[in-house]
Amino acid sequence: MAKAGQSGLEGLAASLPRDGGRTAPVHLWNPPFCGDIDMRIATDGTWFYMGTPIGRPALVRLFASVLKREGDDYFLVTPVEKVGIKVDDAPFLAVEMRADEGDAGPVLNFRTNVEDWIVCGPGHAMRFDPEAGTGGLMPYLHVRSDLWAKLSRALFYDLVERGEERAVDNRMMFGIASSGEFYPMAEAGALREFA
Predict the structure, then answer these.
(1) Model-level pTM?
(2) Helical H runs in 35-173?
(3) Is residue 143 pLDDT above 80, yes or no?
(4) pLDDT at position 93 over 50
(5) DSSP of 131-159, one letter per residue?
(6) By CB neighbour count within 10 A (0-12 exposed, 13-18 middle, 19+ buried), where does 106 fall?
(7) How far apart are alpha carbons 141 and 144 in whole angstroms?
(8) Are strands 92-102 and 147-151 parallel, antiparallel or unpaired?
(9) Does residue 108 sit in helix, strand or coil?
(10) Percent of the chain having pLDDT more than 70?
(11) Confidence at residue 15, expressed as pLDDT on a 0 to 100 scale
(12) Distances (CA, A) of 169 to 48, 166, 172
C-alpha cells in the first residue's frame, strides 16, 4: 500500500484514498489480499502501528474510513489492495452520548473515538453481550457494515440510568429505547435480584 520512496506509517497513509473525512465505499471494493501489517486496535480504541500508539487523530480517522470486516477478520482496503490488521474487541469506542427527544420518544446519539456521530435506531442497533468472567454486560452499537463500537463504561452507566422495563415476547425486559426501537439488556427480574 505504500507509494514508491515512502515507507512505514506515512507511506501507508499516502496510499489511501482521501474524500474529506467520509467513509470510503469499501463495501464495493474487493482487491487482492496483500498480507498482514503490524497494526492493532486495542480494547480501549487506541490504534497501534508496530507496537507504538498512533498519536495523530487525523491519521486514525483516515485508517478508520477504509476499515472493512470479513467474517472475524479486519482489513484496511483501497480499490487495489487489502491488508489485514488485528482488532482486540470492537474497532471503535463510543465516548459521548447525547439524548434528544423525537416523534417516537428518545433518540440517542453517540460520538465515536474517530469523531463519527451515530444515531441509535434502525440500521444502527445496540446489543448487550455477556462480559466474560464478571457476569456483567458489554454494550455495543452498530456503526456500519458489521463494524461495531463498544460503549465506554461511563456511557454504559448512563444507559442503565435511562433504562426501562418493557414486555418483549411475553417477558419483562430491562433495556434502552431509541428512535422508536427497544434494545433489551436482560430480564427485568434478574436485574431486580442482582440489585
Answers:
(1) 0.85
(2) 57-65, 153-162
(3) yes
(4) yes
(5) PTTTS-EEEEEEEETTEEEEEPHHHHHHH
(6) middle
(7) 9
(8) parallel
(9) strand
(10) 86
(11) 56
(12) 43, 10, 8
pLDDT of residue 133: 79
The distance in angstroms from the start CA to the end CA of the chain is 52
CB atoms within 10 A of CB 155: 21
Name residue 76's beta-bridge partners.
67, 83
Give dist(CA 131, CA 139) in Å, integer. Answer: 9
Cβ atoms 147, 69 nearer than 8 A: yes
Question: In this predicted structure, what is the pLDDT of residue 110?
Answer: 98
pLDDT of 171 > 60? The answer is: yes
Per the CB < 8 A criterion, the answer to whether 127 and 120 are in contact is no
Cβ–Cβ under 8 Å, residues 63 and 1:
no
pLDDT on residue 192: 54
Question: Distance of CA 47 to CAs 34, 89, 133, 154, Å?
Answer: 20, 12, 26, 21
- With contact defined as beta carbons under 8 Å apart, do 92 and 148 qualify? yes
